[in-house]
Amino acid sequence: MEEEIKEMEKRIYISLKLMNDSLKIAYDYYKYLATLITGSLFIIVILHEKVFHNPEKVWIEIISISALVISLVLLLGVLGTIRDYFAIPFSAHTAFSSNESIEKSMEKFIDISKQVKSMGKTQKILIPATHYTFILGLIALAIFVSFNLLK
Q: What is the value of pTM for the model shown?
């Protein structure tokens, strides 16, 4: 029985370490995406001020800026949920490393699992919406630049 508990603790520790590593990678990815979005917004401002002095189809530029700003706001939500995920491995590890009974530890682990599921539902909405609005912003930017370069 004692060996099974030690083996289970070892497996949980490895799982939590892998989860933490994957969260770091995801967090870095979204930080880089935030940099791309911000850079795209700066490109729009520079193009508007320095290159296109009297641009046509300004409404396309407005769509691009709006989509990129919405994407940035959604991205902040994604980064917030990822930050919340970072607390989970620590909570799960302390649930099993304390001197409580296995039943109490399993109850804590089930509560953590419910928390993960609720955050997963939020991310199922935020992540695709972030990517779609970013792509929409880039497409609108490309159309805006094309119209104004060809005039």
A: 0.75
